[in-house]
Amino acid sequence: MLAEAMARRVAAVFVLLATGLLAGCADLGYYWQSASGHIGVMRAARPVPQWLDDPATPAALKAKLELTQRIRRFAVTELHLPDNPSYTGYADLHRNAAVWNVVAAPPYSLTLETWCFPVAGCVGYRGYYDEAQAKAEADAQRAQGREAAVYPVPAYSTLGWLNWAGGDPLLSTFIGYPEGELARLIFHELSHQLLYVSGDTLFNESFATAVERIGGARWLATEAGEAARAEYAQYDARRQQFRALTFATRRRLQAVYTSPQAKAKDWAAVEAMKREAMDAFRADFAALRKGWPPQRQAAYDAWAARANNATFGAQAAYDDLVPGFEALFEREGRDWPRFYAAVRKLAALPKDERHAALQGVAPPTHTARAAQPSAAQ
């Protein structure tokens, strides 16, 4: 009954927002699916102690849940991330993603189409709890002449707005991650609750990615066993190689889209150069993949298969300002409160100024990259 009452309270809040504050930002149907989808996630969640006490809970799941609570305490005590109800409950969603995001971009640009919402501001993606609805939105974007993609998202943050209702739960969509990845994900999502700048996806995601990288490295160094460190090293090496390849491809595509041919609107020439860049990416990926162990390749295969301007543009949000945040962490003496205070000062600047400031932070002689494994999400 308590869960039902809580669900009704959350539903009432969402309906109020959808019919009032959110009117004009997008259609009511979209907000209703967002509200009902998140309510479904919350209703599926139970406190971790209940799962641990339940004899029907598999031993492997219990071990993972116990691990998450240690990670959660570490996030609070060592990384100074928020101490609240988030990630103290668990929900089995019986699906492979928490939500599916739609991204879209013009045929000759990596600049993402944006959708605007209260609190979050204008962001370069649109999330759906139903994959079919996400695919329909992607088709609608293609019908307007854009490139589009749909990708699964294992976790998302409500930015702390629903901590009164139990916060963000642990989910079956990521609970099986290797220890190092599980720690990084929790650190990443809690970072969004610590600081979020409306309408600046690049700043927000790069900040959270920097926190997860540095925090994840510290967890592995001080809390994890040798087996977990070895597992992570293999996982991270593959990711580093893939990120280097996609970064190089982004640079190449950007050069194509700002080329003299593009400025002259010689779209046939631009299309030919674009096709050459994409063919090179897929050939290089195929060669890279041959050297990888067979485990956990499906996500990379799926990414490469749908790669286009939209996916490359979305990935940039998780990468481009991370070195600046890592350098800022070093500049602040690797002190978390000082680092967060410096980030808040940047957040108060106009968007272009905060980006420029981060890009201008010179890494010290000994950088975060030298002290910890630096991997993109």
Secondary structure blueprint with pairings:
Blueprint lengths: L1 H18 L8 H17 E3 H6 L5 H19 L11 E3 L7 E7 L9 E3 L3 E3 L2 E3 L2 H13 L3 E7 L16 E2 L7 H16 L6 H22 L3 H32 L2 H4 L3 H24 L7 H9 L2 H8 L5 H10 L4 H12 L3 H9 L8 H4 L6
Parallel strand pairs: 2-8
Antiparallel strand pairs: 1-2, 3-6, 3-7, 4-5
Give an account of the 3D structure.
The chain is mainly α and 377 residues long. The chain has helices at 2-19, 28-44, 48-53, 59-77, 131-143, 179-194, 201-222, 226-257, 260-263, 267-290, 298-306, 309-316, 322-331, 336-347, 351-359, 368-371, and strands spanning 45-47, 89-91, 99-105, 115-117, 121-123, 126-128, 147-153, 170-171. Strands 1-2-8 form a three-stranded mixed β-sheet. Helix 13 packs across helix 14 (336-347). The longest helix is centred in the middle third of the chain and has 32 residues, at 226-257. Mean pLDDT is 88; it is low at 1-26 and 365-377.
Order of helices and strands: HHEHHEEEEEHEEHHHHHHHHHHH
What characteristic shape results from the CA principal axes? globular
Radius of gyration: 21 Å
> In order across it, which strands form the biggest sheet?
1-2-8
| End-to-end distance | 39 Å
Structural class: mainly alpha
Mean pLDDT: 88
Estimate the helix proportion, in percent. 55-70%
Low-confidence stretches: 1-26, 365-377
Biggest sheet, in brief? 3 strands, mixed
Relative strand content: 5-15%
For the secondary structure, the number of strands is: 8
- The number of helices is 16
Spell out the key features of this protein.
single chain; 377 residues; mainly alpha; three-stranded mixed sheet; three-stranded antiparallel sheet; 16 helices; 8 strands; disordered C terminus
